[in-house]
Amino acid sequence: MSHERGHRATLLAMSLALVLAIVPAVWAQTPAAPPQEPKPSMTIYGFAMLDIGENFTQIHPDWSDTMRVSKLPTYKDEFGKDGSAFAGVRQSRFGVKTSTPTSMGELKTQFEFELFGTGVDSGQTTFRLRHAYGELGQFGAGQTWSPFMDPDVFPNSLEYWGPTGMVFFRNVQVRWMPLKGDSNLTLALERPGASGDAGVLADRIELQNIKGRTPAPDFTGAYSYGQKWGYVRIAGAVRKISWDDMLADKYELSGSATGWGLNFSSNLKPSAKDVIRLQLVYGKGIENYMNDAPVDIGIVANPGNAKTPILGKPIPILGTVIFLDHTWNDKWSTTVGYSQTDIDNTEGQSPNAYKQGKYALFNLLYTPVPNVMMGGEFQWGRRTNFSDGFRSDGVKVQFSFKYNFSHTLGG
Fold first, then answer.
1. Domain total for the chain?
2. 58 found inside a domain
3. How many helices and strands, by DSSP H and E, does the chain display?
4. Is residue 26 part of a domain?
5. Within a domain: residue 304?
């Protein structure tokens, strides 16, 4: 009996060894499930946002819910007496992003608008296009952030308009992105556009018939080097600006100029709870790329030339930004910082032309649950005129309530 049990144990051990030898081999030959193909997806996103607060000084009524420094008074009591309240939902936003796999790679699109009227719609709560952009592989086209701008410099603020010295421009463009990722390279041709200031001669009939012209697209590019500690970025812009004298008289006031700029920016992360946002930009004739600068071309005298007594000159500008975003915990955060614009006005500009802007803020933000934010912010700005000695301050307190939404279909 003992011998029989030993024989059965031997057979059982041999059978188990055979199974252990065969099963892995069969398993290895079983084809793995094919990876799932990417599927199209669409994300609907945005937020509803209320801003309410008090201006303790004065600002242009169309910009009462911002700290746009160039819209502060150019002379005493230009906009009446100090003190005005504001409330609105103009920052509210709606957008759609899509992702579609193709034989040439991922096709991405974005369509986004907000309710903050500008230009002829200044002061209105109305639809305003932000992004209408598509991208396939290394190429993109449509309206989106200019490569000359670094959108990550914008601080986590409640105030809509943002730092006065920041490059801030969404533009129509076609772009090439040969390098993507933490380090990236972008080159673009952008829709041109510029403005001029006739200054103290603005009422002369000879200057009423000067027509601006942009003979070529603007060329912009940016390279960013990224690491765990953040990134450093350099961007550039070159543009041709022309103007034509359409009046048949003894003067010939046509001309052209080259505008250019360099923008150095960075986000530094000294800790998991801190982001330092930095920018330094300098250029000539790049004011329309700036967040808050009026004109690109000013006039200067041309002594000894009776036919062309004045010339157009690209106006130099320097912009700086330094902000700190600090997260206290998963519910509380703070932003504090400063920005400045310095313009080297041309001699022919009016004494009350915009020369310097200063901007600062401090806030405390509370996120009680995901996708809900509320907080308060103190804002200060200062406008300094070119040569008449006048300057004006803006002082404001703002409270905001923001409710985000996002839903993805497909994917």
1. 1
2. yes
3. 2, 20
4. no
5. yes
- pTM for the predicted model, two decimal places: 0.89
Could you give the CA distance from residue 235 to residue 187 in angstroms, rounded to a whole number? 10
Neighbours of 72 (CB within 10 A): 24
The residue to which tokens 């000084």 are assigned: 57
Domain-embedded: residue 19: no
pLDDT tens-place string over residues 105-141: 999 999 999 999 999 999 999 999 999 999 999 999 9
- Domain with 346, as residue range(s), is 50-88+141-410
CA distance 265 to 279: 4
Maximum Cα interatomic distance, the chain, rounded to a whole number of Å? 131
**Exposed e or buried b for every residue in 345-380, given b needs 16+ CB within 10 A?**
bbebbbebbbbbbbbbbebebebeeeeebebebebb
Render pLDDT for 51-77 as a digit per residue (tens, 0 to 9): 999 999 999 999 999 999 999 999 999
CATH number at residue 294: 2.40.160
The residue behind tokens 């952009």 is: 133
Q: Which H or E element spans position 172?
A: strand 170-179
Tokens of 409: 């279909």
- Which residues have CB under 8 Å from 405's CB, separation 6+? 44, 45, 46, 47, 371
Strand partners, 2: none
Question: Which 3-state string (H, E, C) describes 318-378?
Answer: EEEEEEEEEECCCCEEEEEEEEEEEECCCCCCCCCCEEEEEEEEEEEEECCCCCEEEEEEE
